[in-house]
Amino acid sequence: MFRFLKGVVAGSGAGIRDLPYNVGEPYPSAWGSWTHYRGTSKDDGSMVSIFSLSGSNSQDGHLAAGRNGVKRLRTVRHPNILSFLHSTEAEIVDGSTAKHTIYIVTEPVTPLAEKIKELGLEGTQRDEYFAWGLHQISKAVSFLNNDCKLVHGNVCLASVVVTQSLDWKLHAFDVLSEFDGNSEASNSSMLQFEWLVGSQYKPMELLKSDWAAIRKSPPWALDSWGLGCLIYELFSGTKLAKTEELRNTAFIPKSLLPDYQRLLSSAPSRRMNPSKLIDNSEYFHNKLVETIQFMEILNLKDSVEKDSFFRKLPNLAEQLPRQIVLKKLLPLLASALEFGSAAAPALTALLKMGSWLSVEEFSVKVLPTIVKLFASNDRAIRVGLLQYIDQFGESLSAQIVDEQVFPHVATGFSDTSAFLRELTLKSMLVLAPKLSQRTISGSLLKYLSKLQVDEEPAIRTNTTILLGNIASYLNEGTRRRVLINAFTVRALRDNFAPARAAGIMALSATSSYYDMMEIATRILPNIVVLTIDPDGDVRTKAFQAVDQFLLLAKQHHEKLITGDTSESDGVGTPLIPGNASLLGWAMSSLTLKGKASEHAPLASANVNASQISTTSNANSVMDAQNAVPVHAGSGTNASDQPEPSSPTSTDGGWGELENGLLHEDHDGDKEGWDDVDPVEEQKPPPLASIQAAQKRPVVQPKPAASSMRPKTTLKPSKADDDDLWGAVAAPAPRTASRSLNVKPASSQDDDDLWGSIAAPPPKTTAKSLNLKTTMASDDSDPWAAIAAPPPSTKAKPLSLGRGRGAKPASAKLGAQRIDRTSSSGL
């Protein structure tokens, strides 16, 4: 029989070398003759607890009881009973003597007495935690007595241990035995190892060894008495020394006192069943117990109950013991969210609890759950993750963001909900620095290109702001192809005033990425026209940006004079204060074009004081929304180029992005910026060619008053009244004091911005201009044709900009080839 038990306990090995665990430092206390050690697994280093019991020989009574405890612990499984992992029995030779030792390996636990000292709880929080612990031990005792018909025999403070999640578990099964209630007349011992129990823990019938009375009693009679002893030791803070101390009830809470007295009834048949203690005691009805119980049976609750519970949980968690919230509630909440049993409001509670953890603990306990939640199809959870991404985004590694998070977040760019698209856009401010260049160039920029023509004006505005913020994370080639096109071709032509303001600010903030040729030929011409924008805020920012870029041009000029040939690219100037608020989001789309069905349950984003002003002029905002989009074209012929798409179109883009490079794709929908800016393809001639053209002798043409006068008095059509940029047209050459006609020309001609910066007429009048001869000889010089004809009256300097000659109703703006067959000049 002994060999059989030894084989059951020891398994295949018989020595300490067979124990796949490392034995660490012992705890100061343990039940009975056992010693409780800290331990770790040799395989993965995980924490365990190791209990050891030694005897002088294999027939030692303590060893026999220990073998009984090992067998019972291995076979009895319950959530509130200590989990068994491994056991072995070894013979250790110490000098001339040999000791037999039993080892039990369990989940990592701490003696209850040690854990209470470590937590240091007081007042209400202590009572709530004790109530939860007693609730768990009562369930374990009820399971043994009522379901298994077993008697533990020694329930006390030493027989309870605490897990890492602060759950209480029952162990010390050395005395455990079946309840033999069939042979009531028998007076033989029912508990073989009852001699291990201290006399202070024995009820009167056990102290007298009245086994007949014990067999006539309910199965829970002995262990109900033990629960009373545990309650006394818990609240008194001392170990029970003698049975008479149980009469001192000064430490027992009043709500628990009636049940405490029933547990310690002198009549075994009147003692309270542990199951009734759980169900009926008022003491167990507190916030902590009810919260944990709700979480444990979450799958049985309906959606209304879940939603109500999780909305209250963040505030409730602040009132509960902090250690219990972090070690017990937080794992339950993370598991519920991960497996889909928790509602979306639970995410708020999870992140609030996670904020109480250290950075290392947050990365281990909370972050894995959050990463998995990004794959959720629940729109409410996705919205919650994006709203709070600034709280955990910094803890995400670049690899996790690039491989696991961004592919799921990117689905929000094309979501039907404008609010979700906006949140997805704003989340890129946190995620973009962690994305690889391949992901940015091949995926992110395509999505941003589409958002820059979104139907929501605020999303278009914030897309421009985001591009300005993440410009530093783009490689040089991508910046050169994307930024200017995105800010000038799209943002500065937007019909929404804050979007134009955002484009100006983005150009100012990224000024260090442009060379002087780009500033002089592509940026300044597009910004200057906004100095007469209908919106005051746009005009103010335009003037500030012009000052900034002119300062850069002046610095470049001074370097050329001093002979400094050092690379000037990438050298910017500090932002002018008015344009320094690029990091702030413009506004929430909910405040502009709201759809009640999409936005009702969601909170709108806050608008910081440093953000772009959207209320500088209410009338101008409304006018800008209804106005024709402002376009800045190139110097190509307007008749040969289609009209640029509006900010809300879907067929314009930056060019296809692939392998980190941008290229044009003329098939199907275009998703880049390159195809909408012909300036990139047709570069202006070098400065030397322009200077040479200006030095050529210019012959003044013969006056053609009869043909020119009707052109100057031609009234634009009604459709042309919507053009905001007609004010930059030159005045009629034959009028001396006529005011500037602010009615614009045809809107379809507005694509040509270069016509407004044509060279002024030369001051010399020595020779007349032979148009046919000049055009024949200068056919290769596209700039020779842009000289405006001088007025027939005395020449005066243009006060409102460089002018263009008067044109018929269907005239084209900018540099054009003169019709050689025309006999009426321009």
Automatic annotation (TrEMBL):
Domain Protein kinase: start-end pairs: 2-284
Keywords of the record: Kinase, Transferase
Disordered as annotated region, ranges: 630-826
MF (Gene Ontology): ATP binding; protein kinase activity
PROSITE patterns: HEAT_REPEAT, PROTEIN_KINASE_DOM
InterPro entries reported for this sequence: ARM-like (IPR011989), ARM-type_fold (IPR016024), CIK-Related_Protein (IPR051177), HEAT_type_2 (IPR021133), Kinase-like_dom_sf (IPR011009), Prot_kinase_dom (IPR000719)
Biased composition (Basic and acidic residues): 661-673
Coiled coil: none
Pfam families: Pkinase
Residue spans of the HEAT repeats: 366-404
Protein name: Probable inactive serine/threonine-protein kinase scy1
Native source species: Phoenix dactylifera (Date palm)
